[in-house]
Amino acid sequence: MQIGSSQSYPSSSLYVYADPVKRALESYVEKCGHSASQLEPIINCAIDETIESNPDLDKTLSPRILRERIESKSKVYIDGVLSKAKSWRSCREHIKAFSSVFLVGAGFSYASDMPLSNILKAILDFCRVTGWDELRNDSKRFLEFKRRFKEICDRKSPSNGYKLVIANFPKHIYEIICLNWDDLFEKAAKSINVPINKQNEDRPATSERYLWKFHGDVEDIREENIRGQGGWVLPDENGFVFNSFREYVDRTRLGEQLFTFVIIGYDEGEDVIYQQITSLFEQDRPTYRIGLDLKNLHKDKYIVGTAEFILNKILPISSIDAS
What we know:
Elements: H1 18-31, H2 40-53, H3 63-82, H4 85-98, E1 100-104, H5 121-126, H6 132-136, H7 139-154, H8 160-167, E2 175-178, H9 184-191, E3 197-199, E4 210-212, H10 243-252, E5 260-264, H11 271-281, E6 287-291, E7 302-304, H12 307-314
Parallel strand pairs: 1-2, 1-5, 2-4, 3-4, 5-6, 6-7
Helix pairs in contact: 1-2, 1-3, 2-3, 8-9, 8-12
């Protein structure tokens, strides 16, 4: 998942106004009673969307007026995000009533400063491979890549969003399907003393309520990269689901239960995940998507916002102290 960032603006000359507009929007968000740091990616996205959608803003205007117009148009997006209290409440009520299953993608890790897919190329470069195809075909380099990624994970701490999810597991969140390699959920569980079952290998699930990690796990690095046996699924692949997960869904009749399905920080670009999980779980169930796509502001079941911001609004346990 790609997240807008003021670190790498496009070449448009209007981006010279991005930093002062950002400061103004941060002040506006704080005055509205919200955390500007939690909404930083949304602020960046609002500025990006305004500039990219209005390339023909009258550049003959004075710099002050031009900056004010960019700020005003960007603020419309911010107001749209902050006006979704009804959607937050609806999602929260559905989770309280029916509990939930969470499907989590790479965007969830943003607040913990984990590298997103567009940043992982730096690790490839460091491991001296040109791309994912070369990595797949070089077991030695692949092992080095995993170890380098683990070194990064070892320096990261789970954000409050991870702790909130764990605090709501398993009472309000039955299952956590995490498509990331990192160990932030595991660290969060340890930090707030919540026991958690994990399935990071395609083996029979003999208990109930799990953290599922189909795509690999830094806590289980192996020399061979075999899917279902500790193998990592790469960002250009179509996803993978354990056979044991499908058996688990049948055994527990999870597929027949009413629950709230929450997809967060995930771009939904993997066909296997869609076919074997999303299409099954969202059918006839309350389903909410949480992400940064401002084009979806008008959709009732798409909640625009960061995980750090929205989870406080939608989870029954919204304070770690309350866990």
